Amino acid sequence: MHGQHGKSSQFRRRRESDFNRQLRAKQKARRIYGILEKQFRRYYSVALKRRGLTGLNLLQILESRLDNVVYRLGFAESRSEARLLVTHGHFAVNSRRTDVPSMLLMPGDVVSVRDGSRTRTYFKGLEAVAEGKNVLPWLERDVKALAGSILRLPERAEIDGNLQEQLIVEYYSR
Question: Are 33 and 62 in contact, with CB atoms under 8 Å apart?
């Protein structure tokens, strides 16, 4: 059916603008990692200052957050659950209790469930749950000790393939 101005507006498809694609890529990354805009922008500026590809640096920073590492080690079902467990002080980094989910970890850092938390119901059944989850090559996990360590920063192929870091870089370099 054609109206006075050509095809009906409900059939018209606009081409998605570059800005829209870039914004959506950034928002998707923020949603996946559960990070607010101000902090995400700060991570971007840190990634920009590092040597190498800014997009890859940004993804490595996001992956090396404590809450994400707890999730990747299989100690939580989701990143938001991992964030909650960290906030409640159930984890120690290099034998020091921490409750900061945004803490950035470096290769060699050891993340473990605190002794006081091991008696909790959640952590008693965790060994069996974590056993069924594969751990990424850049991480090492000891399920019996409920601990894990970072061997190195992740490579691009080991990070979620749905993220388009180049669009995020383009968004911030407008």
Answer: yes
Could you tell me the pTM of the whole model? 0.88
Residues 91, 112 contacting (CB under 8 angstroms): yes
Query: One-letter amino acid identity for 21?
Result: R
Angstrom distances, CA of residue 83 to CA of 8, 80, 90, 150: 48, 5, 10, 18
Residues in Cβ contact with 140 at an 8 Å cutoff, skipping those fewer than 6 apart: 148, 149, 150, 151
Please count the helices (runs of H) and the strands (runs of E) in the chain.
8, 7
Q: What are the phi and psi torsion angles at 15 (to 5°)? A: -75, 135
Strand partners, 136: none
Grade residue 1 by pLDDT with cuts at 50, 70 and 90: low
